[in-house]
């Protein structure tokens, strides 16, 4: 697990009461991978998920990016979003599957945050361990495995990148709205 922290200019010592985890590839960004990305990220953001990230940040929640990519590939995203922490792959230790769940749990312990107050946003069955670690999981898109879990557990839902239309703020609603 690589946890890279970035300090925001307005940072003051604070103890967040909740955290929000955002899978990057295919969830926060409307692309499945970061290899070869260059230039502005503007059109690559998935508006409903980006709006949720900003809403969590405004509430003072710990904002955490979770990615298969490594630190170098995430640098442009980290520069733009200034998350509180990044959980990502490092040589010989990819951030995938159960590793995402373990990393999220460790970060919550480190910050003494109760999992039931936390959120996670993800788009594929491989992200189930991350979603299972929080009290408010949000399925992004139409993965059939995640949708089955969402129906059983009354999880939040957001449209996937291919279906995202209109105003980002209106797309964030219902069970997926932080609060």
UniProtKB/TrEMBL annotation:
<protein>
    <recommendedName>
        <fullName>Phosphatidylglycerophosphatase C</fullName>
    </recommendedName>
</protein>
<feature type="region of interest" description="Disordered">
    <location>
        <begin position="157"/>
        <end position="179"/>
    </location>
</feature>
<dbReference type="InterPro" id="IPR023214">
    <property type="entry name" value="HAD_sf"/>
</dbReference>
<feature type="transmembrane region" description="Helical">
    <location>
        <begin position="20"/>
        <end position="37"/>
    </location>
</feature>
<keyword id="KW-0472">Membrane</keyword>
<keyword id="KW-1133">Transmembrane helix</keyword>
<keyword id="KW-0812">Transmembrane</keyword>
<dbReference type="InterPro" id="IPR036412">
    <property type="entry name" value="HAD-like_sf"/>
</dbReference>
<dbReference type="Pfam" id="PF12710">
    <property type="entry name" value="HAD"/>
</dbReference>
<feature type="transmembrane region" description="Helical">
    <location>
        <begin position="49"/>
        <end position="71"/>
    </location>
</feature>
């Amino acid at each position: 697990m690589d946890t890279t922290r970035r300090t925001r200019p307005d940072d003051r010592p604070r103890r967040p009461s909740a955290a929000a985890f955002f899978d990057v590839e295919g969830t926060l960004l409307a692309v499945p991978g970061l290899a070869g990305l260059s230039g502005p990220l503007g059109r690559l953001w998935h508006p409903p998920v980006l709006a949720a990230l900003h809403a969590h940040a405004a509430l003072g929640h710990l904002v955490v990016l979770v990615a298969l990519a490594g630190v170098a590939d995430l640098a442009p995203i980290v520069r733009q979003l200034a998350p509180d922490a990044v959980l990502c792959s490092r040589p010989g230790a990819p951030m995938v599957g159960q590793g995402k769940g373990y990393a999220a749990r460790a970060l919550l312990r480190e910050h003494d945050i109760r999992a039931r107050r936390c959120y996670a946003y993800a788009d594929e069955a491989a992200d189930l361990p991350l979603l299972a670690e929080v009290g408010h999981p949000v399925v992004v898109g139409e993965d059939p495995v995640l949708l089955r879990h969402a129906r059983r557990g009354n999880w939040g839902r957001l449209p996937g990148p291919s279906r995202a239309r209109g105003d980002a703020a209106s797309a964030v609603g219902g069970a997926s709205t932080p609060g």
